[in-house]
Amino acid sequence: MKAAKDLLPGVPLIHSPFFQDVLVESDWDAETRRVAVDLNRDGFAVIDFPEPELEALAADIVASVHADLAWDRWRSGELAELPRATDAWAHNESVRRIAANAKIVELLGRLYGRPAFPFQTLNFAIGSQQDIHVDLVHFASSPENYMCGVWLALEDIAEGAGPLRYYPGSHRWPAVFNEHVGRRPTSDGDPYADLGAFEAVWERLAQVHGAQEVRFHPRKGQALIWAAGLHHGGAPHTDRTRTRFSQVTHYFFDGCAYFTPLYSNTYAGRIGFRHEITDVRTGQVRKMDVNGQPVPWSLIKATAPPPPNPPSLPRRILRRLTGR
């Protein structure tokens, strides 16, 4: 009889319908098993980040990545928010080291059943204050669910500092894409228009499941791993005497095609392939393949959505999302 993990090689182990058998058959240590159980049940797991030099790395990030922020204007209320630093790993070694942490990458590989690699970093000085959302509309893979995030506290996070918030178990709710909410990206449209269609569904899902929001108040050095389908966001940052220094790293896994569902209209021949996904560890672009079959450039080119018109995001972000 085949082992449970071999029955569905295209399903992450933590999402397997045979998860209990996976646990029985695995040789995972006690901590890996705990994290796997938490992710399977709740869609997230809290860990102590395995970086012995975290104090020095955090201090460097605070001093360099966030050095030029308009703190006085934000604290006075003149500014509603301060910008996050996207992909600071490209010019800051401390950010890159956290994202590329070998123990984290190895842990994720065990949990998902195939090697992981970091592809994006986000660094925050204050709370994101984002509405509840699901990463899957922005970051998706085929086979599905081979994406996760790791949120790391670079300081103790208090309630007024806009802590991370989420709905435990929401990764089990139905995944919602353009075709489900009636969105049809067009050649001359803005793919970021009508996001309210998703937000209305996500809000109603929380209501019908009677979901209770949980807020993460970690101490410095604690991290939260979350599954791609977890409904999460940022609480309001109400105490402007406090900061919320933190780093998010997003990870994909080997043997997948990577794409942006928000840009895609598959049945009209549009797929927002992320064909310039870069491995943070090496700086090299990762090839896409599914079951050993490379995704041909002819398909990527033929299905590429045009750039948004009018653009609704900074060009650097549009380029990262569309590969253009």
UniProtKB/TrEMBL annotation:
Name of a matching Pfam family: PhyH
Q: Can the keyword Cell cycle be found in this entry's annotation?
A: no
Where along the chain is composition biased (Pro residues)?
304-313
UniProt-annotated stretches for the region Disordered = 303-324
Concerning InterPro entries, the annotation shows:
Phytyl_CoA_dOase-like (IPR008775)
Alphabetically sorted, this entry's keywords are: Dioxygenase, Oxidoreductase
Q: Which domain of life is it from?
A: Bacteria
Task: Return the protein name.
Answer: Phytanoyl-CoA dioxygenase family protein
| Molecular-function GO terms, alphabetical | dioxygenase activity
